[in-house]
Amino acid sequence: MTYIQNFINTSVSQHLNNLGIYLIYYYIIINIYGFIMTGLDKRKARRRQFRTQELSFFVVSLLGGALGVVMGMTVFRHKTQKSKFYIGIPSIFLLNLVVSFFIYRYLI
Q1: How far apart are the first and last CA of the chain?
Q2: CA count, 13 A, side-chain hemisphere, 68
Q3: What residue intervals traverse the membrane (predicted)?
Q4: pLDDT of 15
Q5: In contact, 72 and 34? CB cutoff 8 Å
Q6: Number of neighbouring beta carbons within 10 Å of residue 67
Q7: Rounded to whole angstroms, how far apart are CA atoms 96 and 75?
Q8: Are 68 and 34 in contact, with CB atoms under 8 Å apart?
Q9: Cα 58 to Cα 38: distance, rounded to the nearest angstrom
Q10: Within 13 Å of residue 79, how many CA atoms lie on the same side as its CB?
Q11: How much is the average pLDDT of 6-27?
Q12: How far apart are CA 67 and CA 93, in angstroms?
């Protein structure tokens, strides 16, 4: 094996070993983003400014940020009257839990 092949194989295996920690960082960041996005939208609603599209909340939730959006909905009392939010976002959170379980169980 050449030096370059050895370096590539070592580098790839090191990144795969760290995949779990990278996913944890990802979930933390995406959930903080979802929480902040909900708070900013509530602030814009109070000031009657241009609002965040509702689809954005669902996209962030599907990308793993459902916990942050749910926490933001609770803390800021925002979007709690709309059934597609108080049913949809927690449902996506449960989906996130299932997907996370399978990722950690079978891929890492």
Answers
A1: 27
A2: 24
A3: 20-40, 52-73, 85-107
A4: 67
A5: yes
A6: 20
A7: 21
A8: yes
A9: 11
A10: 28
A11: 76
A12: 6
Q: Are 70 and 93 spatial neighbours (Cβ–Cβ below 8 Å)?
A: yes
**Both tokens of residue 94?**
């449960």
Encoding tokens for residue 12? 């790839």
**What's the confidence (pLDDT) of residue 90?**
93
Q: What is the pLDDT of residues 61-108, one digit of tens each?
A: 999 999 999 999 999 988 888 888 889 999 999 999 999 999 888 877
Extract the tokens encoding 79. Answer: 């979007």
Q: Which residue has the tokens 């959006």?
A: 69
Contacts (Cβ under 8 Å, ≥6 apart) of 68? 30, 31, 32, 33, 34, 35, 36, 37, 38, 60
HSE-up (13 A, CA, CB side) for residue 96: 25
Predicted local distance difference test score (pLDDT) of residue 55:
94
CA angle 35-39-44, nearest 5°?
Answer: 145
Q: What are the residue ranges spanned by the domains of the chain?
A: 27-107
